[in-house]
Amino acid sequence: MNLKNLRSEVLVQNTKNLIKEETRILAKVLAHFAEIEARKLYLELGYGSLYLFAVKELGYSEASAQRRIEAMRFLKKTPEAQSMVEKGNLNLSRLSLLERVTKEAKATHAQNVEALNFLQAETTSTSKSELRLREFFKLQSKKRVVTIEMDEETYELWQKTKAELGEVKDACALKKLCESQVKKTQTKMRQSPNARTAGKVLRRELLKAAEHRCQYVGPINSQRCNNRQFLQCDHKIPHFLGGETTQQNMRILCQQHNLLVYQELKSKNLF
């Protein structure tokens, strides 16, 4: 398959068509999982659980198998979600999340449907959606276990820090320390418009204005990137062409789009 000769608009349309097919296949795969579980076919094949069957017989990774089983089980008890999956309006991650949280909450069918509609209105990341969903069911906040390795000198320093903060528990001390850093007032320093790069204050203002999301807008479909990872400050009018390092002449781009803009300038022989 040679895709290099395809026009950009054809490549995008082909991708959309494949995604529709991928969505249709997902709905069928989950239906097959449901039937295999109903027949307990995995037992006949020598596996103690559907999970082991999915990993060892079907070749899924452990995480992928778990997500599909959770998604299938939510669909079984909430058939209202089936059409959403078939239309591509409900993905695997969110189905899995709904199953985990509603199971923990011991939700009724009516509550499952309510949670489904609630999550459909959410446009945040999966982790933030989980917090909102747990609040919806009035479940306790999920605790996370973090293991940190440190040398003896750092450990002694941490013990002194906990003592100064007046906290014995590591989690409480760490929370208090982080909160003090986040709320710490920062003195604003005047940003020179001739500076090559944005300083801390200007970067913070740019990120706030961009809502911590990439501001690149696709010229073909006017779609904003919205990536929140690896964000960089970029000059609208390049610095080497006389562009000033000011909020009016700067924007936030993700690393990939910053590189794309650079390559476009290079192709125009501007430097």
Range of strand content = under 5%
In what order do the strands lie side by side in the largest sheet?
Answer: 1-2
How many structural domains?
A: 2
What is the chain-wise order of helices and strands? HHHHHHHHHHHEEH
Low-confidence stretches: none
Span between termini: 36 Å
Approximate shape: extended
Number of strands: 2
Averaged pLDDT, please?
87
Helix content: 55-70%
Q: Give the class from helix and strand content and strand pairing.
A: mainly alpha
- Largest β-sheet summary: 2 strands, antiparallel
Q: How many whole angstroms does the radius of gyration measure?
A: 25 Å
Q: Quickly count the helices.
A: 12
Describe this structure in words.
This protein is mainly alpha-helical and 271 residues long. It folds into two domains: 8-136, no CATH class; 200-267, no CATH class. 56% of the residues lie in helices and 4% in strands. The chain is built from twelve helices and two strands. The chain has a two-stranded antiparallel ribbon. α4 packs across α6 (92-105). The longest helix has 32 residues, at 8-39. The radius of gyration is 25 Å and the shape is extended. It starts with 7 loop residues before the first helix and ends with a helix. The model has no long low-confidence stretch (mean pLDDT 87).
